[in-house]
Amino acid sequence: MNGSKGGPAQLLFLAAVYHQPVDDLTAFILAGGKSSRMGEDKAFLRLGDETILSRALNLARPLTPSVRIVGEAAKFAKFGTVVEDVYPERGPLGGIHAALLSTKTALNLMLAVDAPVIDGSFLEFLISEARQSDAVVTVPRSGGHIHSLCAVYRKEFAALAEQSLILGQNRLDMLFSSVKTRVIEEAELQQLGFRPEMFRNINTPKEWREADLRFGEKTSCENLKQ
């Protein structure tokens, strides 16, 4: 498991997580972005010895046996089961809508492919919080931003997403006020030992080079500790 060293509260939470069922959850890797600022498909950029897509899949697979990729089947079918947008070219809301239409589980983890340094233990915490709550959306907030592409959505969010898409409204975070939402605030993240920097995504070549450098430094430190 990827994770930072947290305090007693985090350790107690992790002990409970391992006894949770996994068949109530599907994980979706959102890989349908255009990557226009990057100049090439972000999913196939490499960090260390794996692509960003491979890293995202490897983060999700220990959480549930049901992992899907949201994107173009022609591009991603060889990497796993693919779900394509019902409303193409509508951004993250279109991807989440397609995912929730396809799912058979109550809880659904959405994970952006271009946020490659997400902490695996944070995802376990996020899912645990979603299971314990009746919130339709369980989502973190840090730096004043809601991280809607690292969140758990209940299947019923699909109806609200479709209504918004039909009306031509693509803003995902605007819908959260219409449903019960559990927001995990930055203070709570820090108390559990999670660093807000993990939500940083990669949009440009410069950000990719910086992430690759940080990833290499982190890997070297981990190897020295072994």
Describe this structure in words.
This protein is of the alpha/beta class and 226 residues long. 38% of the residues lie in helices and 17% in strands. The protein has helices spanning 8-17, 52-60, 73-76, 91-102, 120-132, 157-166, 186-191, 205-225; strands at residues 25-30, 46-47, 50-51, 67-70, 82-83, 107-112, 137-142, 145-146, 150-154, 181-184. Strands 1, 4, 5, 6, 7, 8, 9 and 10 form an 8-stranded mixed beta sheet that branches. Helix 3 links the parallel strand 4 (67-70) and strand 5. Helix 4 crosses helix 6. The protein is globular, with a radius of gyration of 17 Å. The two termini are 15 Å apart.
Distance between the termini: 15 Å
Shape estimate: globular
Unreliable stretches covering 5 or more consecutive residues: 1-6, 8-19, 35-39, 217-226
Residue-averaged pLDDT: 83
Radius of gyration over all CA atoms, rounded: 17 Å
Instruction: Please estimate the helix content.
Output: 25-40%
